[in-house]
Write a structure and sequence with these properties.
CATH topology of the largest domain: Rossmann fold
Distance between the termini: 16 Å
Helix content: 25-40%
Largest sheet: 7 strands, mixed
Oligomer: single chain
CATH class of the largest domain: Alpha Beta
CATH architecture of the largest domain: 3-Layer(aba) Sandwich
Length: about 450
């Protein structure tokens, strides 16, 4: 169903906080993807498997059994690298904890904090337990310069738990339970908008939740963010994340079905634009720059995600020439990128100009039952009425189709895959005199792209 990202250090993560959520999530049909800094196979804190003191203060037998099963999972043995992570690949993020020294690799990584901040910006579910909220406390929202947790309510490892574990074991384990000089609770609280936004929950030291009993467990939910305190809350936070994912899939399915059947918009299209759409726009602008295409930002237009102007309306030797209207002509960056990506196809056929009538135009089409928005309203379509070759010959769609050049260009553009093409060959009723070139785009997060478009 959904794909959940779980970043880890190379060693010393908490057995229960990783193995229990993994077991419950995979049991529910979800895919859990692990990632370490350089793709090394991770390993849990060995003392939590053997016992911190005299075989005690470790993971419960069921959690250890889940971990033994996890160690045999291919995705755990061959995790991804942090540097390769893309928020769009995942429907949710889970940040586990742990307290031994190896956790500092994960808790203190600026690279991971930036990835986490990028995922947070998508608005998709994020869950964190124990030391996990410390990653969020240190992750900075570039738009505000503050922690992504600023303005959110959260829990984390309570100071009394961290202090008690340290006092009980310091004679034998030294500072094993003190990951940093500052207590986790103090640092997390300092990142919040108000000290009251840190919620400790009922005081507990030994009673734990289980697969069938959550009475001793505690979580805090604030919108799409879910947090818990310690390994004893692992079952509860996993079950609540699963419930949230079920709601997410239902909502996304409904939204996609609505876009498909009511609005006739690209899959995943929303207005205002989603984080995924905004990210696609930024990537598109970078693509134009890489291709050497000259463009400038256009003022906002209704329903256009990334409005731009092409400076001289020429891309890679192919000119876009209006039939009547005067420019400048607003288009979505994705349409400009489609021109750039297919210009070589046009030039190989000897095409020097595309004569067009419309690009952006906020209007409806009518399917005979109700008005629906045209792709022109999104700046994602252009109506081409003629092609002009290098020798100056005009090939007019209405008069000359299906001549050899028009058929060749239509076939080559269709094979390139950048456009959905409507014209006299497949829609003579509505497009008898022009080619309607419409960018093919899927805005859905890749973590849910298996859903039908």
């Amino acid at each position: 169903m959904a794909r959940i990202l779980v970043p880890l250090p190379d060693r010393d993560f908490d057995v229960t906080e990783v193995a229990v959520p993994w077991k419950l999530l995979t049991r529910a049909g979800h895919e859990v993807v692990f990632a370490t800094e350089a793709g090394a196979t991770p390993a849990a804190d060995p003392l939590l498997l053997s016992g911190v003191l005299f075989g005690a203060l470790g993971a419960e037998p069921e959690a250890k059994a889940f971990y033994a099963e996890l160690e045999r999972a291919p995705g755990f043995a061959r995790p991804r690298r942090w540097a390769d992570l893309d928020p769009e690949d995942f429907a949710a993020l889970f940040l586990p904890g742990g307290h031994a020294a190896g956790m500092r690799q994960y808790l203190g990584s600026a690279e991971l904090q930036a990835k986490v901040a990028g995922f947070w910006a998508t608005g998709r579910p994020v869950a964190a337990i124990c030391h996990g909220p410390l990653v969020l406390a240190r992750a900075v929202d570039p738009a505000t310069g503050r922690s992504v947790l600023h303005g959110k309510k959260t829990t984390c490892l309570p100071k009394y738990m961290e202090r008690t574990a340290f006092y009980l074991t310091a004679w034998r384990r030294g500072r094993y339970y003190r990951t940093y000089p500052a207590y986790v609770e103090d640092e997390v609280r300092g990142a919040l908008a108000s000290a009251d936004d840190l919620v400790r929950g009922p005081r507990v030291l030994t009673r734990r939740g289980s697969d069938g009993d959550d009475r001793a467990a505690f979580t805090v939910r604030d919108g799409a963010y879910l947090s818990a305190r310690w390994p004893g809350d692992s079952y509860k936070i996993a079950k609540e994340l699963i419930a949230g994912l079920a709601v997410l899939v239902v909502l996304l399915w409904g939204a996609l079905a609505s876009a498909r059947t009511r609005l006739n918009m690209p899959a995943g299209w929303t207005w205002p634009p989603s984080a995924a759409m905004a990210d696609r726009g930024r990537a598109c602008l970078a693509h134009l720059d890489a291709l050497g295409v000259s463009w400038r930002a256009a003022p906002p237009r209704r329903k256009v995600t990334t409005p731009i102007y092409l400076e001289d309306m020429t891309v890679a030797g192919v000119a876009l020439v209006p039939l009547a209207k005067k420019g400048p002509f607003v288009m979505d960056c994705l349409l400009a990128a489609a021109f750039a990506d297919t210009a070589a196809v046009l030039r190989s056929a000897g095409v020097a100009e595309l004569r067009f009538a419309e690009i952006w135009d906020y209007r409806n089409i009518n399917d005979g039952r109700r008005p629906i928005l045209s792709r022109h309203a999104l700046g994602l379509a252009v109506d081409v009425y003629a092609l002009v070759t290098d020798d100056g010959v005009r090939h007019v769609v209405e008069a000359d189709y299906p001549d050899a050049l028009l058929l060749t260009v239509e076939d080559w553009l269709r094979a390139a895959g950048s456009y959905r093409i409507l014209g006299p060959g497949n829609d003579p009723r509505h497009h008898h005199d022009h080619f309607h070139l419409e960018v093919q785009v899927d805005y859905r997060p890749r973590s849910l792209a298996a859903l039908p478009p």
